[in-house]
């Protein structure tokens, strides 16, 4: 036999093994919990199967007139006690097995989350937030269902149907064959209908999320909607989404309404056959009335396992598809090198060296940066240029958010591709174009990168970012909550808070990617003084189109279509670069530079 044909080497098997590897650890860790859960489940099945035997005993006793009222009461009491034990055991298995599926879901979710946080910018361009949210809700839910209820239903259906059929055969083999004739149809029906039910339910979920997303985006932009008087239009669109949602729900209700009547009908079809042939057997004295009643009870018991077979195959199929999607995510490799940080010593004054660096975004034919040669050491470096010239790209590459080719970017004279990404990042503070603040206190927002920062350190950073005075004017000072439920800050205040966050970490490199654009001109000067004081001897890169700010830097790099067009001090650039000159003329007409430029 060829090796590829052997089952253990079959690619599909290998893939399945890999997929199950994602959940295996949870099964092993919680094996005792599962064992107890399944013991309880099997005990329930066993007890359920005993009840028809007791009924048979009672009915035969009545038919043969050899049972007393006390005897009947005793049987009734026995059934009641069994029912009680069943109730307790049902609780136990549900608690243990469904609890297990939730623990498994949590383990996979944590793994997924950990992995997503490790990924780089390219990954987040490939997968949208919506995709990732869908993976962490719908897909995890499908896996949880398959490993919880799916597993229970599979075991339960197998045990119950085998035992019930065994008991039925014990009563009468031919009658059993007759009674089972319609059962495969039941499994097939459930399989088809539950598949359809799932697809329709997925549509309901999608529509629900579009409706809530629409409501959310409407509410957050309520001022804009009022300003443009589009309330009526928005209401109509919301109404349309709502109507779609109701229709989809009705389509789900149709299937739900069909499943049980069809199941009962098929069950009853079997019953009809049993009544016909079984009745004849009773009349002929081949089986007792008690056997007949017990047989019917077992037949009813078979309806659920038959439905479960159809349902479980769907659950398993969905679970595997979802596990496959999660697996693709958690095994995707970041484009940046994943190197271990073997306690590399931090560098006090690191430098960057860009050597003929050219960078393309994924699937782009034009480079975003082209042949960049640049040395960045201690000092304040300005970067400017027209929109789209590559300023942010440069910052992102320095922060190691995107991969670069070997031999093009050096961190302290070492090729960045030979250094762990987190080692380089641990040296830098980053202030992006959009300050991202969390719904938390101001102090916690500043201390994000240094959770153990003292109040004095937080305040010092806030002073250097020229935001301290604004903070102490707020009702709770540094304890003031910001975000949706808290105080709203102006754009400039948010940017300065983000700057304080970078300063508190006290790292030797600071990149400010247009992070001061909303700060007013007077405060900008204060911020710059704060930076100069705090960051003496460090490397600071400030992207800005504000000439006043650039005039205070040690040098400014002007980018044009991804290339360095000019690199010099303010007075040199005024003479050399027409772009810089025209920016200067335009901005000075609005706010002349108060002091002489160095
Ligand atoms: N994620 C991306 N994928 C593909 N192309 C991108 C991506 N980000 C930026 N670009 C392109 O790369 C070029 C440089 O963009 P970049 O954001 O670096 O410019 P910028 O100078 O910072 O512009 P702005 O001043 O408007 O922020 C632009 O042509 C832009 O369209």
From TrEMBL:
Membrane topology, as annotated: Multi-pass membrane protein
TM ranges: 34-55, 75-93, 146-169, 175-193, 250-276
Superkingdom of source: Bacteria
Protein name in the entry: ATP-binding cassette, subfamily B
Major place of residence: membrane
Single GO cellular component term: plasma membrane
Domain ABC transmembrane type-1: 35-318
Annotated ranges, domain ABC transporter: 354-586
Subcellular location: Cell membrane
InterPro entries: AAA+_ATPase, ABC1_TM_dom, ABC1_TM_sf, ABC_transporter-like_ATP-bd, ABC_transporter-like_CS, P-loop_NTPase, Type_1_exporter
Keyword Membrane on entry: yes
GO molecular function: ABC-type oligopeptide transporter activity; ATP binding; ATP hydrolysis activity
Keywords, sorted A to Z: ATP-binding, Cell membrane, Membrane, Nucleotide-binding, Transmembrane, Transmembrane helix, Transport
Keyword Zinc tagged: no
SMART domains in the cross-refs: AAA
């Amino acid at each position: 036999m060829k090796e590829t044909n052997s089952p253990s080497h079959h690619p599909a098997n290998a893939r399945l093994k890999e997929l199950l590897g994602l959940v295996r650890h949870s099964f092993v860790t919680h094996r005792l919990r599962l064992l107890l859960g399944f013991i309880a489940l099997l005990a329930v099945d066993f007890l359920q199967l005993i009840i028809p035997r007791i009924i048979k005993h009672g009915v035969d006793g009545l038919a043969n007139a050899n049972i007393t009222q006390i005897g009947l009461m005793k049987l009734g009491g026995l059934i009641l006690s069994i029912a009680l034990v069943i109730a307790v055991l049902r609780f136990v298995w549900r608690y243990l097995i469904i609890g297990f599926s939730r623990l498994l879901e949590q383990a996979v979710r944590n793994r997924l989350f950990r992995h997503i946080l490790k990924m780089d910018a390219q990954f987040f361009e490939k997968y949208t937030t919506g995709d990732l949210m869908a993976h962490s809700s719908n897909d995890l839910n499908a896996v949880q269902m398959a490993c919880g209820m799916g597993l229970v239903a599979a075991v339960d259906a197998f045990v119950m149907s085998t035992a019930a059929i065994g008991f039925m055969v014990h009563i009468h083999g031919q009658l059993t064959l007759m009674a089972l004739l319609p059962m495969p149809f039941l499994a097939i029906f459930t399989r088809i209908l539950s598949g359809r039910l799932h697809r329709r339910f997925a549509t309901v979920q999608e529509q629900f999320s579009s409706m809530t997303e629409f409501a959310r985006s409407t509410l957050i932009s309520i001022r804009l909607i009022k300003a443009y008087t589009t309330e009526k239009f928005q209401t109509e669109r919301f109404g349309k989404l709502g109507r779609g949602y109701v229709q989809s729900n009705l389509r789900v209700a149709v299937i739900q309404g069909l499943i049980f009547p069809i199941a009962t009908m098929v069950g009853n079809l079997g019953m009809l056959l049993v009544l016909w042939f079984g009745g004849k057997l009773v009349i002929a004295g081949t089986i007792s009335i008690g056997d007949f009643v017990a047989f019917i009870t077992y037949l009813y018991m078979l309806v659920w396992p038959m439905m479960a077979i159809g349902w479980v195959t769907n659950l398993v199929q969905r679970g595997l598809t979802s596990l496959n999607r999660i697996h693709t995510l958690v095994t995707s490799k970041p484009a940046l090198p994943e190197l271990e940080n073997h306690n590399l010593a931090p560098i006090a004054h690191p430098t960057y060296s860009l050597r003929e660096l050219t960078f393309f975004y994924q699937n782009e034919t034009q480079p975003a940066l082209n042949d960049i040669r640049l040395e960045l050491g201690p000092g304040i470096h300005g970067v400017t240029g027209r929109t789209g010239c590559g300023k942010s790209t440069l910052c992102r590459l320095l922060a190691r958010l995107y991969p670069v080719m070997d031999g093009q970017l050096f961190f302290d004279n070492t090729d960045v591709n030979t250094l762990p990404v987190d080692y380089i990042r641990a040296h830098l503070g980053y202030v992006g174009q959009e300050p991202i603040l969390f719904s938390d206190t101001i102090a916690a927002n500043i201390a994000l990168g240094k959770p153990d920062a003292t109040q004095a350190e937080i305040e010092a950073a806030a002073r250097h970012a020229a935001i301290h005075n604004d903070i102490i004017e707020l009702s709770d000072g540094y304890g003031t909550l910001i975000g949706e439920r808290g105080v709203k800050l102006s754009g400039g205040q948010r940017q300065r808070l983000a700057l304080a966050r970078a300063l508190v970490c006290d790292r030797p490199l600071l990149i400010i990617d247009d992070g001061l654009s909303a700060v007013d001109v007077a405060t900008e000067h204060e911020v710059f003084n704060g930076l100069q004081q705090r960051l003496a001897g460090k490397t600071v890169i400030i992207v800005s189109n504000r000439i006043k700010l650039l005039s205070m830097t040690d040098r400014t790099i002007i980018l044009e279509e991804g290339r360095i067009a000019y690199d010099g001090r303010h007075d040199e650039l005024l003479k050399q670069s027409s772009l810089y000159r025209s920016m200067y003329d335009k901005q000075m007409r609005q706010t002349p530079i108060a002091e002489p430029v160095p």
